[in-house]
């Protein structure tokens, strides 16, 4: 890596850090992170992993920022999408739903065989610049097209409401204090396992038609660690072979690279690898990281659970997974390139 002739000054570092902490644009956050990381002599491979930018892009971003300031990294303003569809547009959309699969109408949906609510919303936003506030509007469109949905039932684990109430009473003040501190980043963390076993979600089809999706006879797994920045809605996801205290400690080091100067409050569950000795050693060495454990059997409190759902909706549901590593890499890229506005207790990035 070439030696930088000019290092960022204190004001520039603070300015970029402010964008990372407060911007609601994933692109602005990634640009700022790339400039900060190259200034701190992070290796190109790590910067590319976290931001998606390659060597030339990283140095060009830095050069433009030094010349033009934040103007070089902030998004260009775009007009707000329209709120309603015309009758003609609605009729056109219903015909498209009846006659075509998502993959047949737009290369953006080239891997999507079936219609889902999220795909319909994305299609309407992309082609008609309309974004509804409620899913009910999309349900009505499907019903107008005479579609019905198919989805397996789901059973949630029981949890102790008294334990949850006690946890909220004890930890809400700590979390809100951290969120009010501009030098502290609050991260909601969780892990998931992605496998070659096909998973299913609700899809919409003409009445009388039923979905058939190819499934795998073999099962291979990969783990994903996910950290949701509650301040910004930015996700930091990492692919691993498995979950244990050694891997968790290494992931915490990578999180520290992303937020080199801030204090961290990580809210996660009580898994053994979170409490393991190697993780505790890393937290003790770091000195600027604190943790809070969610109550038992209360996954609904963790906003990272909803990030997983969004990722599965877009990347893996109703899909035959032939190569587990390719699928996991695509899953991680999707998560790291999007903003997720989910709440931790009563606070979210758009509050």
Describe this structure in words.
The protein has 351 residues and is an alpha/beta fold. It has three domains: 10-72, no CATH class; 87-145, no CATH class; 163-336, Nucleotidyltransferase, domain 5. Helices cover 44% and strands 13% of the residues. The protein is built from 13 helices and seven strands. It has a five-stranded mixed β-sheet with strand order 5-4-2-6-7, with helices on both faces. It has a two-stranded antiparallel ribbon with strand order 1-3. Helix 1 (10-22) runs antiparallel to helix 2 (26-39), helix 9 (245-258) packs parallel to helix 11 (277-286) and helix 12 packs across helix 13 (324-336). The longest helix is centred in the middle third of the chain and has 20 residues, at 161-180. It is globular and about 60 Å long. Residues 152-157 have low confidence and may be disordered.
């Amino acid at each position: 890596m070439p030696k930088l002739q000019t290092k960022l000054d204190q004001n520039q570092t603070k300015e970029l850090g402010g964008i990372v902490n407060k911007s609601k644009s994933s692109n602005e956050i990634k640009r700022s992170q790339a400039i900060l990381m190259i200034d701190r002599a992070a290796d190109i491979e790590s910067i590319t992993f976290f931001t998606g930018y390659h060597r030339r892009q990283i140095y060009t971003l830095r050069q433009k920022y030094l010349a033009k300031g934040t103007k070089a990294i902030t998004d260009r303003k775009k007009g707000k999408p329209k709120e309603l569809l015309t009758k003609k547009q609605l009729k056109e959309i219903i015909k498209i739903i009846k006659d075509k699969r998502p993959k047949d109408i737009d290369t953006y949906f080239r891997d999507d065989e079936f219609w889902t609510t999220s795909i319909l919303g994305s299609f309407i936003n992309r082609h008609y610049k309309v974004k509804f506030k409620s899913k009910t509007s999309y349900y009505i469109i499907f019903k107008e097209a005479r579609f019905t949905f198919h989805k397996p039932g789901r059973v949630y684990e029981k949890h102790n409401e008294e334990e949850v109430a006690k946890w909220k009473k004890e930890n809400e003040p700590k979390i809100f204090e951290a969120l009010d501190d501009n030098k502290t980043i609050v991260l909601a963390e969780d892990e998931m396992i992605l496998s070659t076993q096909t998973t299913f979600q609700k899809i919409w089809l003409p009445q009388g038609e039923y979905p058939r999706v190819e499934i795998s006879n073999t099962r291979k797994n990969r783990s994903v660690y996910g950290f949701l920045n509650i301040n910004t809605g930015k996700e930091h996801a990492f692919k691993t072979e498995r979950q244990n205290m050694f891997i968790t400690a290494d992931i915490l080091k990578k999180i520290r690279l992303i937020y080199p100067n801030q204090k961290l409050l990580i809210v996660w569950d009580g898994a053994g690898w979170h409490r393991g000795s190697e993780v505790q050693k890393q937290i003790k060495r770091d000195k600027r990281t604190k943790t809070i454990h969610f109550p038992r059997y209360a996954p609904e409190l963790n906003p990272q659970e909803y990030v997983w759902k969004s990722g599965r909706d877009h990347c893996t549901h109703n899909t035959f997974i032939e190569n587990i590593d390719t699928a996991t890499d695509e899953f991680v890229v999707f998560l790291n390139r999007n903003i997720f506005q989910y709440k931790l207790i009563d606070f979210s990035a758009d509050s």
